[in-house]
Write a structure and sequence with these properties.
By secondary structure, this protein is mostly helical. The chain is built from 5 helices and no strands.
């Protein structure tokens, strides 16, 4: 299959899926779709660096977390009266820019490394970022930042286990 045809088909499927979920008005389908898209993005990032470039990268989750927690910081700062509240799409763009900037800086410093040394450097980034986030109470600390999911699924039953 040619690349432009595949790209057009993928965009069409994404638009139809998004519109179908919006018409159905199901929060559960939206959250489930969002989680699927997150895993697609992470798998694509792993495929590009690990598959095409041949690098074993353990920092993919760290870059993802950096973008997510930068949006958490911006959101929590907006709850104060001295900082303007930003819309969610703008927070998503800020998270992507921060994550991309950290990824670019890390790539600039580590892409000269080969083999296991590159893997160790990216693993070190992931461990350092996990330690910082775990000990930073402003973003949730060891509890982490979480989003309350819909309580029930459209097919009946609870969406989460209650203890």
């Amino acid at each position: 299959m040619r690349a432009p045809l595949f790209f057009a088909l993928a965009i069409a499927v994404a638009v139809v899926s998004f519109l179908g979920i919006r018409v159905a008005g199901s929060e559960y389908a939206f959250v489930a779709g969002y989680v699927v898209v997150q895993y697609i993005v992470l798998a694509t990032a792993w495929n590009i660096l690990g598959g095409y470039a041949g690098y074993v990268n353990f920092g993919t989750a760290a870059f993802f977390a950096m973008g997510a927690y930068s949006t958490v910081v911006m959101y929590k700062l907006a709850q104060n009266e001295w900082f303007p509240a930003l819309p969610v799409p703008m927070l998503m763009v800020i998270g992507g820019v921060v994550s991309g900037a950290v990824g670019f800086a890390t790539g600039y410093l580590t892409l000269r490394l080969r083999g296991v040394y590159f893997s160790i450097a990216t693993l070190a980034l992931a461990v350092v970022l996990q330690t910082v986030i775990t000990n930073w109470d402003f973003v949730g600390g060891s509890r982490g930042a979480y989003v309350i999911r819909p309580g029930t699924s459209p097919w009946g039953g609870a969406n989460y286990m209650e203890y």
